[in-house]
Design a protein that fits this description.
453 residues
Length: 453
């Protein structure tokens, strides 16, 4: 028997009678994003009958990710996608402030549209950072991406800076004072995930989606493929057999390009990038290789679609393979647990897998604004663990201080290391010598394993 929650996600759930109209022995909903198997004896106390999350015991029909043979798809977007332009600008502003004051507070949102950049949000940092400096930072970010188009140009776009001082009411909950430690910058839930599918312990579909676009951007910047423009999207559908990736069934790439480029020529340029990144023999059938399916794509970037910070949270993380707490990362200093605790969750999950304790691991953390300790730590090894999940939960709590301050200090997050995270994923990257992507290190694996033994 398995104990878990019945939810209104059940399509035949009757909210009036708080029960399903299905035969209770033939149906049970289980999905990692909506319902979590409970291992705790006191779950009935926390979810009493009539609460809408009634505990039941019956056979489980597994979710898609628990099946052995299936297709799974993830997408990525390039650094020139309108939303990613905004993420980069916002993170460049975070770096600007942290370079001047490692303890600056930043919550910067960016909007872009045709020849327009708008920055808004709250900051607390050195008065020496002026609006002109912030505008210059935004323009440099756009220039680095490569936008020099009539509808969006780093030099001529109108830039409006509307950043203002952080609310004193928020600051009082976050700041340390007296015997009070630094609290979380907001409430929320954060998830981290790792698996053995790739050498960077990331799911394959999002991993290869990122790599294709990164290769195309590198070729564009180097001058190898001047036909490409900055805005692009990719999508990879992976075939799984016995729970392992065995090939790619389809690839979709839509890329902005210069006027006059023939679609058949563009297709071959994209083909070269895709083949360079997929394993040998994994290129999809020709009829499942889609390049600019709608045809010409000259008008793109913020000139084609408005962009906003924080709208690509699934691209930023695990491509839909693992749960997401809902909070975006970019534009936030590391006191915001939406960012720092998501990094910590990934760090812990990756070290659990690196320690050989499981093939897959999901870690969830939760916080309350102004409270220094996490409210909960949850682990799911997805049936691949060599130890009990409870042992992992206890071990990670002992091996790492998971207070907001503890996370920042352990991972060294009070540094200008964020602009580089804005495209091609915050996870599955190589740690940098200056502290960038520190959450990708596996230096805690031995400690976690020793704690369990």
């Amino acid at each position: 028997m398995h104990i878990f929650f019945r939810s209104a996600v059940d399509p035949e759930y009757d909210p009036c009678n708080n029960q399903s109209r299905r035969n209770p022995q033939e149906y049970a909903f289980r999905d990692t994003n909506y319902a979590v198997a409970s291992r705790h004896k006191n779950s009935a106390d926390r979810h009493p009958a009539g609460s809408g999350a009634e505990l039941i015991s019956e056979p489980i029909r597994e979710s898609n990710l628990a099946r052995s043979n299936f297709l799974f798809t993830s997408e990525s977007v390039s650094e020139g996608h309108p939303d990613k332009v905004c993420d980069r600008i916002s993170d460049a502003v975070v770096d600007l402030y942290l370079a001047a004051d490692p303890y600056a507070r930043v919550a910067c949102e960016t909007l872009t549209t045709t020849n327009k950049i708008v920055l808004a949000g709250e900051i607390r940092g050195p008065e020496s950072i002026t609006k002109d400096m912030i505008e210059d930072t935004a323009r440099k970010a756009v220039k680095a991406i490569g936008y020099e188009q009539e509808g969006f140009h780093w030099k001529t776009a109108d830039c409006e800076v509307l950043l203002h001082a952080q609310s004193a009411h928020i600051a009082q909950g976050v700041d340390a004072s007296g015997n009070k430690d630094e609290g979380a910058g907001d409430q929320g839930i954060m998830f981290g995930y790792a698996c053995t599918e790739t050498d960077v312990l990331m799911p394959s579909p999002i991993y290869y989606s990122h790599r294709i676009l990164k290769r195309m951007a590198e070729d564009r910047h180097s001058g190898k493929t001047p036909q490409f423009e900055p805005d692009a999207k990719s999508q990879v559908t992976m075939k799984y057999e016995n729970g392992k990736p065995v090939g790619v069934t389809s690839v979709v790439v839509s890329t902005q390009h210069k006027e006059g480029v023939k679609q058949e020529d563009l297709r071959e340029l994209v083909r070269e990038a895709v083949k360079a990144e997929l394993p040998n023999g994994w290129f999809p059938p020709e009829e499942e290789f889609y390049v600019n399916p709608t045809g010409m794509f000259v008008i793109g970037g913020p000139d084609g679609d408005a962009g906003l910070t924080g709208r690509k949270i699934i691209v930023d993380t695990y491509g839909g393979w693992a749960p997401h707490g809902g909070g975006a990362f970019s534009g936030k200093d590391p006191t915001k647990v939406d960012r720092s605790a998501a990094y910590a969750s990934r760090y812990l999950a990756k070290n659990v897998v690196a320690a050989g304790l499981s093939e897959r691991c999901t870690i969830q953390l939760s916080y309350a604004i102004g409270v220094s300790k996490p409210l909960s730590i949850y682990c799911d090894l997805h049936g691949t663990g060599k130890v009990d999940e409870e042992a992992i939960e206890k071990a990670v709590a002992k091996c790492m201080d998971l207070s907001p301050r503890g996370i920042r200090e352990h991972l060294g997050l009070n540094k200008p290391i964020y602009e580089r995270t804005a495209a091609y994923g915050h996870f599955g990257r190589n740690p940098d010598a200056d502290g960038g992507f520190s959450w990708e290190k596996t230096d805690l694996a031995d400690k976690i394993a020793a704690e369990i033994r």
